[in-house]
Design goal:
Blueprint lengths: L3 E6 L14 E2 L2 E2 H11 L5 E5 L3 H9 L19 H16 L5 E5 L8 H13 L5 E7 L8 E2 L9 E2 L20 E11 H5 L9 E5 L9 H19 L4 E4 L21 H12 L3 E6 L10 H10 L6 E4 L15 H4 L4
Parallel strand pairs: 1-4, 1-5, 6-10, 11-12, 12-13
Antiparallel strand pairs: 2-3, 5-9, 6-9, 7-8
Length: 342
């Protein structure tokens, strides 16, 4: 077996989400998830956390990682580069232990949701293709660069396309006809030790892409809450716990109507299918609606009939939800996010 080393960089401090690398997420420090992913890999045979913090060292050891050194402060700042961290770790291990890694895995602790099987698939690409320097995980980009612009001359208002492709005037072309673009998602990177130490690069010259449908990199409080909610759902499914899901009707199950004449509402079929699938998985579905909250009109009979005709599966139907323009809730899920557990 080749020496395959997973390195998890976890410096202390964070400006966007304070101490996010060790912040508790669904019962354990976020750093723990990346350590567990590395340990669950069938090909990774050593896991190291590179940190500048003794407190982070203790957390890492508690969850099964090695912490043979403290990272120097000069490569632990906001502007420090990944190549500096990996070069330091590999040279430290070679000098102090005589250890050399054939392949390296870069797992960022800011990506607490990943499939360990993806680690092994990406490593296998390198093992089977000696000409490839690295493999980087990517996800479909939410926005296309073919409709982005730059101002080459800051003194002029004349724009130029950021990038071009084989589609004439791509910026005037429907998005569906443009090439699919992918964005690196900070989930998994794998590379050869020689790529780092000899080419002085985290990627090298030949970079293979590994496509993923998911992207859970944590950079904001919203990212943190989204990932924590999904982990809670996945854990509940594994443990067979029957979580309660409270779902609004209008805008989720029923289309919105002018003047709130709910009799004219139409079923939103895709969302109903998702909700019914959650019902079949054992979740307790509560429909909670603000219909009639402001006007005092009783929409119960109409609503019950619609749910029956639209084949909506639920356990409870509650009226009296406050009617507001904007709702703020730390447990709020979008219906598309819930599809991830199905």
């Amino acid at each position: 077996m080749p020496n395959i080393l997973a390195i998890i960089p976890a410096r202390s401090g964070s400006k966007s989400v304070k101490d996010k690398n060790v912040r508790i997420m669904n019962g354990k420090p976020m750093l723990a998830y990346s350590i567990e992913h590395a340990l669950q890999s069938k090909l990774v045979n050593r896991v190291i956390v590179s940190t500048d913090s003794p407190a982070y060292q203790e957390v890492a050891r508690q969850y099964g990682a090695e912490t043979p050194f403290l990272r120097p402060k000069e490569i632990s700042g906001d502007a420090s580069l990944d190549i500096e961290v990996f070069d330091h770790a590999l040279r430290w291990l070679a000098d102090r232990e005589g250890y050399r890694a054939d392949l390296c895995v870069h797992l960022r602790p800011t990506h607490p949701i990943r499939d360990p099987r993806d680690i092994d698939k990406m490593l296998t690409i390198l093992l089977e293709n000696p000409l490839i320097d690295s493999v980087r995980s990517v996800s479909p980009a939410m926005q296309t660069p073919y409709k982005m612009w730059i101002f080459p001359d800051q003194e002029s208002d004349r724009m130029s396309p950021l990038v071009s492709c084989n589609v004439p005037e791509a910026y005037n072309t429907p998005r569906q006809r443009l090439p699919q673009v992918y964005m690196q998602n900070a989930c998994i990177d794998v590379m050869r030790e020689a790529t780092i130490l000899e080419k002085h690069s985290m990627t090298g010259d030949w970079i293979a892409g590994y496509k993923m449908k998911y992207d859970f990199d944590i950079d904001t409080e919203q990212d943190f809450l989204r990932a924590e909610r999904l982990l809670l759902l996945e854990q509940a499914l594994r443990e067979g716990r029957r979580l309660k899901i409270c779902c609004d009707i209008d805008g989720i199950i029923a289309s919105k109507t002018p003047g709130n004449d709910y009799r004219k509402a139409l079923p939103m079929e895709n969302n109903i299918q998702t909700l019914n699938a959650l019902y079949e998985k054992g979740f307790h579905i509560v429909l909670f609606t603000a219909r009639g909250y402001k006007t005092g009109i009783d929409w119960k009979e109409v609503t019950i009939r619609q749910m029956l005709e639209w084949n909506v599966h639920y356990h409870e139907l509650l009226f009296g939800k406050p009617d507001a323009d904007i709702y703020i809730d730390d447990k709020l899920f979008g219906i598309d996010e819930l599809k991830a557990v199905l």
